[in-house]
Amino acid sequence: xxxxVDASEGTIDWGGRGAEERxxxxxxxPCLKNVHTGLPNPASGHMKCSQITGDYQYFHYxxxxxxxxxxxxxxxxxxxxxxxxxxxxxxxxxxxxLPEIQEALVTMGxxxxxxxxxxxxxxxxxxxxxLDYFYDVPCKLVHVxxxxxxxxxxxxxELHQHFEKHGSPVMMGGDRDNSSKxxxxxxxxxxxxxxxxxxPHYYGCQLEKAELQRRGWVAWKRxxxxxxxxxxxxxxxxxxxxxx
Length: 244
What we know:
Blueprint: E1 4-6, E2 11-13, H1 19-24, E3 47-51, H2 73-88, H3 98-107, H4 124-135, E4 139-144, H5 148-165, E5 170-174, E6 181-189, E7 192-198, H6 209-215, E8 218-222, E9 232-237
Antiparallel strand pairs: 1-2, 3-6, 4-9, 5-6, 5-9, 6-7, 7-8
Helix pairs in contact: 2-4
Keywords: Hydrolase, Protease
Protein name: Ufm1-specific protease 1
Organism: Stegastes partitus (bicolor damselfish)
């Protein structure tokens, strides 16, 4: 599922509001590139930082005129990852549309025919299938059981190794925390680690990257702020041999 819950108010945040929701229907523009650039480091002091290399486009709810709030965050993260492959692997295949992603999963036999045209959500496993199908890119799937030690040690170390070797975006999702998110970097300091999250849940008119960062749609998130009772899966495209 793709719902982001505000625990302080008990309401679901679907993204944009009011005029932004109306405007998106009429102004479909090319996706912004590299929305994490210019974001300050999350803390000072001794640190280890690993991030993606290369360019990508930011896909989010409604960016192509399709109102996919509540179910499309996994698709949008896949599109963002696919844009990285398109821009950095010398491939001319653009990011697949939502219908193309659904049709591919049906063709592969992962989903029944009724999946096409549905509003069913997808996760990291489907992401690995889709990226291999369209771009011939294998993906490593890492299961993190959850909790402070697993997230701070296993997930963080896997991400450092991935960005240093492959440099490609990572998709992250879980069970209790079932909101798909793109991971574009990891920062480790004396007081813990942070993930560079590119959140696909924004819905509204196109914003400048500085405004996306100000509103928290692109941000460094403390690993300790993640749901400690949720397991997490990471989908890591294995791009070292053909990458930039």
